[in-house]
Amino acid sequence: MEFQDKVLTCVDCGAQFTFTAGEQLFFYDKQFKNEPKRCKSCKSKRVAVLSSNPVVRDGRQHARVETRATCSQCGKETTIPFKPTQGRPIFCRECFVQKRNVASA
C-alpha cells in the first residue's frame, strides 16, 4: 500500500496541517481507524490538559506535583515529579539512570 501526504484541518484551531505518508504508515501499522483531528500544537495542549488530572491514591485525590530543581550531580536544570525533601540529592533523568545502572551492576 502506498501513502501520500494529505493536508488536514485541525478541529480546534482550524489550521491546516500535513498528515505525512510516514505518519499514515504508522497509523496503518497500528491499525488506527481514524485520521488525526488536531495539529501538533493543539494535540500537545490537549495532552497537557488531560494529563494534569489529579492522581488517585488510597481512594483520595492528590494533585500532580512537578517541581523545578537543579541536578545535584551535573548541575543541569530539571523537573521532578515530587516536592524535594531537604538534604536529599536531586538527579536529572540522565544522572538518575546512570546511578541506577551503576547500582544494579
Explain what you see.
The protein has helices at 21-29, 40-51, 93-104; strands at 6-9, 16-19, 55-57, 60-62, 67-70, 77-80. It has a two-stranded antiparallel ribbon with strand order 1-2. It has a two-stranded antiparallel ribbon with strand order 3-4. The longest helix is centred in the middle third of the chain and has 12 residues, at 40-51. A hairpin with a 6-residue loop joins strand 5 (67-70) and strand 6 (77-80). It is an alpha+beta fold and 105 residues long. The model has no long low-confidence stretch (mean pLDDT 86). The chain is built from three helices and six strands; from the N terminus they run E-E-H-H-E-E-E-E-H.
Taking all Cα atoms into account, the compactness measure Rg is: 20 Å
Low-confidence stretches: none
- The separation of the N and C termini measures 46 Å
Helix content: 25-40%
Sheet bearing the most strands, described?
Answer: 2 strands, antiparallel
Shape: elongated
Helix and strand pattern = EEHHEEEEH
Number of domains: 2
Q: Which class do the helix and strand fractions yield?
A: alpha+beta
Chain oligomer state: single chain
**If helices are DSSP runs of H or I spanning 4 or more residues, what is the number of helices?**
3
In total, how many beta strands?
A: 6
Strand content: 15-25%
Question: Which strand order do you get reading across the main beta sheet?
Answer: 1-2
Mean pLDDT: 86
